[in-house]
UniProtKB/TrEMBL annotation:
InterPro entries associated with the record: Ntn_hydrolases_N, Peptidase_T2, Taspase1
Active site positions, chain numbering: T238
Protein name per its UniProtKB record: Threonine aspartase 1
Gene that encodes the chain: TASP1
Subunit structure: Intramolecular proteolysis generates 2 subunits, alpha and beta, which reassemble through a non-covalent association to form the fully active enzyme.
Site features described as Cleavage, chain residue numbers: D237, T238
Annotated region described as Disordered, given as residue ranges: 1-39
GO CC terms: cytosol
Lineage of origin: Eukaryota, Metazoa, Chordata, Craniata, Vertebrata
Organism superkingdom: Eukaryota
One MF term in the entry's GO annotations: threonine-type endopeptidase activity
């Protein structure tokens, strides 16, 4: 999983070198400039994005880093313009979905029928509202639909006292999006040469695997396991982002084309509440604001509700240790996944709190951010 951070700084002493991260992570700390501050000289927020857990071709490493940086910049630009966290995180996801190299929106994995069906969700830590779409076709930016569902729900009940939807799937999600001004995109135009090529390879592997099953032996078992490995963990790449705005609000979002060769209609963790993402502002019950975005095997993440579990763990004083224990006890060794040979997943998390000695202020200057 790639991690790219954009952290506009506001203090002169923030000139220390950034912390060291493993080689597979990328950190960006922009140079201080007037554009990174508001009129009072305060920082505008914090953005963290990822392009997904799983195997990413080394030959495309530069492209993945570039798209993550662009996603961060899109979100930072929105924060500079005064946008709240939920709008900034949406902007980051749109950039990730528009890239042909990510498994979200444009260039998503094709299902068994050779079609693209996408999942996405977003959560606003301020209102605690959530919006999501699942198995939706013909929409290039499913996160826009999820965000619109969230914002429409904030307007209150529909005619005749009907409750507005927060989660739509399939054709109903597509039609609702179009009716609310989100432009459709023919599925064939969302497929790229990379996704089409992968579909052909995976289809061929499935055909071979089916032949292997009819003449099962020790040698063919190894071949089938190799095929499953190539077609499984290598393509678990839900994209996501988490954001803190200048007021200290947090938001999180995820988007995915799902597993390659999935059954039509399958909905992964990217659309499920508490599984794909989570965001919650500080309150009388929670001393910290938290935001989480997950990636991995959707079925594993759904059965463990990993995003919400990680958020709860980060309310502990020793957040790092609590998060490690949550990953071990609530996911890796979870009784809900006891029948699995191996579990596949990853998270980016963030927590922040108001400094106890800070003067009351709505600005991010009075916020401490900590990413784990």
């Amino acid at each position: 999983m790639w991690r790219v951070m954009e952290t506009p700084l506001n203090c002169a002493e923030e000139q220390q070198p950034p912390p060291a991260f493993p080689a597979s992570w990328s950190t960006v700390t922009p140079q201080e400039s007037p554009a990174d501050r508001n009129d009072k000289g305060n920082a505008v927020g914090f953005v963290l994005v990822h392009a997904g857990a799983g195997y990413h071709s080394e030959s495309k490493a530069k492209e993945y880093k570039h798209v993550c940086k662009r996603a961060c910049q899109r979100a930072v630009d929105r924060l500079k313009a005064g946008a709240l966290a939920v709008d900034a995180v949406t902007a980051a996801l749109v950039e990730l979905e528009d890239s042909p190299f990510t498994n979200a929106g444009m260039g998503s994995n094709l299902n068994l029928s050779g079609e693209i069906e996408c999942d996405a969700s977003i959560m606003d830590g301020k209102s605690l509202r959530y919006g999501a779409v699942g198995a939706v076709s013909g929409i290039n930016n499913p996160v826009l639909v999820a965000n619109r569902l969230l914002s429409e729900a904030q307007k209150g009940k529909l005619s005749a006292g009907r409750i507005p939807p927060c989660f739509l799937v399939g054709r109903g999600a597509h039609d609702w999006a179009v009716n609310h001004g989100i432009p459709p995109c023919p599925s064939e135009k969302m497929a790229t040469k990379f996704s089409l090529s992968a579909y052909k390879r995976n289809k061929h592997k499935m055909e071979l695997a089916e032949k292997v099953d009819t003449g099962f032996n020790h040698h063919s078992k190894k071949r089938r396991q190799a095929s499953e490995t190539e077609n499984g963990s290598g393509l678990l790449d839900t994209v996501g982002a988490i954001v803190v705005d200048r007021e200290g609000n947090v938001a999180a979002a995820v988007s995915s084309g799902g597993l390659a060769m999935k059954h039509p209609g399958r909905v992964g963790q990217a659309a499920h509440h508490g599984c794909g993402c989570w965001a919650e502002n500080t309150s009388t019950l929670n001393p910290y604001s938290t935001a989480v975005s997950t990636s991995g095997c959707g079925e594993h993440l759904i059965r463990t509700m990993l995003a919400r579990e990680c958020s709860s763990a980060m309310q502990c004083e020793d957040a790092h240790q609590a998060l490690l224990e949550a990953m071990q006890n609530k996911f890796i060794s979870s009784p809900f996944l006891a029948s699995e040979d191996c579990v596949l997943g990853g998270v980016i998390v963030l927590r922040c709190c108001r400094c106890s000695d800070a003067q009351p202020s709505p600005d991010i200057q009075a916020i401490l951010g900590k990413s784990l």
